[in-house]
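Entry type: protein chain
Record version: 2
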Amino acid sequence: MKIFKNRQSAGQLLAKRLKSTKADLVLAIPRGGVLVAKEIAKILKLPLDILVTRKIGVPMQPELALGAVDPDGEVVWDESLLKELRIKQQELSDKVDEELEEIKRREKVYRQGKDPLSVDNKTIILADDGIATGATTLAAIRYLKRHQVKRIVLAVPVASKESVDKISRELGPPAGEAGGFGEVVVLETPEYFHAVGQFYQHFEEVTDSEVVQLLRS
């Protein structure tokens, strides 16, 4: 099982795997995904932008994702978990509003007055530093579908097998087969997955100012 040195080195490894991919734009899911995506964009000589989605956590256990919200305010719910915990979507409306406000705040801070890059009819490399449950990733993918992207290549260093299966079903058959909307490029799918950070030697928290600097450069 590979342990990555840091997000930058993981991004460089992903870029090697993506060399033959014909894409128009790299989108990062902040914050940690920006460090990965920056390396991909730099090596593949592609423009870089962000797509902010936010997890909706279980009350009193916020690390466990019940779903995620995108910049349009659309939510992807884990229906089976909601049923299991006997939580109704309406009970989480305040939390959804709170996370949507955070999305708007981050977009304003990170973009520094710049307009988002157009995704219409483009092939997008969507990058993050890892995927545990897949909630924020699914929200990002459905957002891009609604905004008429041509194709999505999800690129992550590490992901749980369950999340890869879930996202692969969302994207459809592999590239080249009828009905395929995109593909998943993942370097490691460990059998035992607790948290993304366990697969990095260095996994420091990324700040808003770091994200701003990466996008500016």
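Comment: The mean pLDDT is 93.
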